[in-house]
Amino acid sequence: MKFTISFILLFLVTSAATHSQTSISGKILNNAGENLNGASVTISKDSSGAILAYGISGGDGDFRIKVNSEADTVFLKVSYIGYAAWTKQLSNADQQVDVVLTESSEELKEVMVEARIIQQHGDTLSFRVSAFKNQKDRVIADVLKKMPGIEIMSGGQIRYQGEPIQKYYIEGLDLLEGRYSLANNNISADDVSAVQILENHQPVKILDSLEFSERASLNIKLKKQVTVSGTAEVGVGYSPLLWRTKITPMIFTKKQQAIVTYQSNNTGSDVSREIRDFSISDFGREEFSINKRDWLGIWQLSPPPFRQERWLDNNVHLGSVNYLIRLKKDVDLKTNISYLNDFQQQIGNTRTRFFTPTDTIDLVENTHNELFINTLQSKFILERNTSDNYFKNELEVNGFWDSQRGNIMTRNAAIQQRLSNPFSAIRNNLRLLKPVGKQLVTFRSNTGYTESNQSLNVNPGQFAALLNQGEPYAETEQVVTSSTFFTDNSAGFTKGIKSVTIAPEVGFSIRKQQLESRLGVMDGGATTYPNADFRNKMDFLSSRFYFTSSFNYKKNNWNIRLLTPLNYRRFEIEDAFLEDARELNRFTFEPNLFIKKKVSAYWESSISAILSNDFRDFRNTYNGFILSNYRNIRRYNSPLPESFSQAYNGRLSYRNPLNSIFASTSYTYAVTENNLLYSNQVGQGGAILFEAFEQENTSISHNLNLEGSKHFNKISTTLKLGSRYSLIQREQLLNNNLVEVNNHNLNFSLGLESDVSDWLSTSYEGNLSFLQIAMAGRDFDEIRSQQHLLDLSFFPAGNQYFSIASEYYYNNLSEENRNSYFLNLEYHYTIEERKIDITATWNNVLGTDEFVSVSNNEFTYVQSTYRLRPSQLLVGLKFSF
Amino acid sequence: MKYLFLLISLLLMPQQGIAQKSFSDEFKYKAIYKLTYQPDSTDANSVRSEFMILYLGEKISRFSSAERSRGDSILRHRKRNRLEFTGRFQGAPQTKFDYYVFKGIPEGELSYTRKIVKDNFRYVQDLDLFNWEIQPETKEVSGYQAQKATTNFSGREYTAWFTSEIPIPEGPHKFNGLPELIVEIRDQKDHYSFVLTEFKEIEGIPFDFTTKDYNTTNQRKCKEVVEKYNFDPFAAMERYGMKIHFTPEQEREAKKEVKEKFEKYNNLFELK
């Protein structure tokens, strides 16, 4: 570096004391005899010592340095970029030194101080992917689950500091709208530079400064501006014949994004998780759900609480197309279409022990179920989200053509169940925000329709005492036809006045539900229909006028939000089999308060209080019995269910990106007053008669959550700890006696992900839970269960790894099979230049063939034995493009 | 001495304006510093940071914020896409240090440039601003063995660490004159600090500078203009014929907000 500094000869005096001063001067030239200016000349005591004095050569290559030192000799060093350094030991005396530097190609030492693992910029935390990724990690979900503060639940939902994330963006675009598992499980970790957590993220840009949000969103930052990638995978195995295929092309640009996938397997991988929707609704809004809900069902086996690959007997095909295009100015068009076809089998048995205050009843059911799943889900979204305008229209059309068959062998009967449970739904959701004058005018409209015509046939006939004067008969047939139409429209405005934003809104909603059902007794080729007690023909109209004001205050470190919804609700029920129409009018005030304070850069605390009234829908108001499954028959021959709830929550969270510590704790207390109690009458064969009675009652729940995680950078380890406690107290009618039920649940979890060394990485997950039920003052045996998962991966070379996955489950209740062990082996080889992965997997090496789990509710202990997938071998090829 | 140089540069200024000198060089090394600063001297929680880039050529070096550099013409080919989430992220580079320091323009001096709305102001200072005192302590900074030196500059006392492993007498901001590269420098109160986070050789980036692109003035005048702009950016913009169509209420709000920000930003880098 040559600064043609015309007259710079800097000299220094290291101390005020007067020493003998010497002057060393000279000239610096290169091989060609040219003057070098800008060369640095330093004088030190010896070759390694600190600098005593220095100078920089001037335009003519001259330098002059005054040295204040009593040392006899000094060390002179001349250096210049592109030249080898020149050094010499000199006597500490006035002298002239001429230096000729020779060129050198030696490079300067370069450094790159790695950016922090977690960087904070305002409300954005960036987690550097490379710091968490190891050789085994393929997709971004593998890396995400190691990041402190972030966890992926077993269904695929992502949480940050214990709360579900609101949006999953890819480069700032929301392609998948809640069905983010598809991206999370397919985007290659190598394509991602950082995962960003956007705390307090308001997804509606125009509301950014007006309404705060306490929810966090996640953004995937890709390495390249245009990413075209994808994977194709095939695998075959034995036994029986197994296959697995998957092809997932993806493209991400600034204007367009697409993820397309086709997946098929019979290896137990539940690909329907990839399209599970985790969208969350806006604050304090009653939204109509179009989720599928079944009236009827066959008797299901409770699935083991671990990886589906161990137990799911499936035959699945999934196709999904997701496309986003930015049309003209900031208008995004999004299309998400998914089709799922699956055939699943469940084999196992259930031993149920019913505890009643007077008796215990035992029931053994050997079950073989077949489930046929056929689902088409589609979403079309047009959205404009800019800082001066918001428009979003979302049209959703879903169809489910499902059916199930079940065979049950009890000690003395063989029961066959046939279920047809289709469901279809359409919904349009519109939201508009537009500035008019000094305020924002808002408009919402949500309209939809769902329909379900379901039937259940059970052979031989059930509930003979109730339905056929105690005479056995051939078959019970339950038919249910239901539909729901709803529309909810509201208008309001939003206005910011200093630090307060006020948003009043008026709205009107209608929900019209129709239910028809009929229980038939089929015997000797004829079907008879018992009396009106077993039929329904009901119209349920509920309407609501509401006036809601929302107040948002944001200043300094305070965030306060108050919603004050005033509702006038009207319910009208007309039942063809009842003389009188039922009617109910209620005026309710259901406020919702949230206060948050940022205590310091790391600590944050919040409290919330919510009062709400709940009036159920036609599912809880039908008067005629419906056989919901072969041994449950239920009705609600009672007034409209009403409940009033209060919920209070306090939360404290800590996050320190500097030392990668994340922790949070929350406590929730809720009281619900209900006007109805439900009774279960357990009959001799374990058949349950369910009815509702008018009886004021209260239920109380306490929930305490603690969790914390830390990443240790030096040892590449993430530690996650958690604990949950809940106590639920409620009253229950059991065989005509009113009893209090207390449910204590305590859970501890520990997770550890560690890259121990270059050749070994390990992950451990442990879970302890304790469950204690007390009914009518009587304690039942405590249920203790444990889960331990340990994975060890060895990396003998950069392109291959070998992993051992072991699992251990324990419960104290079952008499046999208290302990279950599993082992999986996997070998992975990568041909890097071709981007091909070869895998060989041996699942369930120990050949564990069944799993026993215990569960319970207020009055039963259930021990289920589930047949698992056998020991299986699978080889696969995976191409990345 | 400093004032003498100022005076000299003041005297020389008109000639320079007429002379329209051009300078060119090729940047060969890049050093990135993390600047951590406390805009409100009374509030330790106001600490912020951003990255600054020093490009080093044979005769000329250029120092600016990484954000500013991002939108820069010479780096256009490697300009990266940045997320646009909310209004906050849009538009102009997000930097509180929107200036350049060109050391070696002109020879033996430095040019400080600052763009206000449409005008690019420049003032020239002698490079010899610092009276360094070398101290015996050494420590490791960002992987380099560095030695301590102290100086006073613009009302603050600084401690610098320079490394013999990079024999370039350079540093962040206007700092220079130590025999080797400054890898860390911070003031005594720790209100401003620069720490090297990256140093590497780069493929040469050609660089040109023409004085005619700038409105050459002096440091005092430049500071005045900047302060005036920070105090009331709307008025400054209006002077350039740019008008924001605010309602009276919005205007009051906006002005109030700017004023509050201005008052909180009480801890300028160069105090004098």
From TrEMBL, chain A:
rRNA processing is among the record's keywords: no
Keyword Signal: yes
SUPFAM superfamilies: Carboxypeptidase regulatory domain-like (SSF49464), Porins (SSF56935)
UniProt keyword list: Receptor, Signal
Organism domain of life: Bacteria
Signal peptide: 1-20
Coiled-coil segments on the chain, per record: none
UniProt xrefs under Pfam families: CarbopepD_reg_2
Name used for this protein in its record: TonB-dependent receptor
